[in-house]
Amino acid sequence: MRRFGQVVKVKEEKYKEYKFLHDNIWPEIVNAIYDANVRNFNIFYRDGYLFKYFEYVGDDFDADMKRLAENPKNIEWLSHTDPCQEAVATAEPGQLWAPMDLLIHF
Prior knowledge:
Blueprint: E1 2-10, H1 15-23, H2 27-35, E2 38-46, E3 49-56, H3 61-70, H4 72-81, E4 85-86, E5 98-100
Antiparallel strand pairs: 1-3, 1-4, 1-5, 2-3
């Protein structure tokens, strides 16, 4: 199992919309994430930042993430959520959710 942490900003004027979307997450999205071998998926909020934590239990992360990215329902979902977000200053070009380094786990 691999653990992942990622960070992104949420636009202040879009926070309520973003929260509403996730309070009413589509079952197809939950299933698609699960089918991509993602478990223990969480998004936390604080002071304009979103922190995502999840665990990957599959054998081919890149293939699973590619399949998830190409899922038509996921593409539709992201068309609603992505406009609510903006990358942190240190994100790579074209990267919305910036990866974080795991410093400790026990």
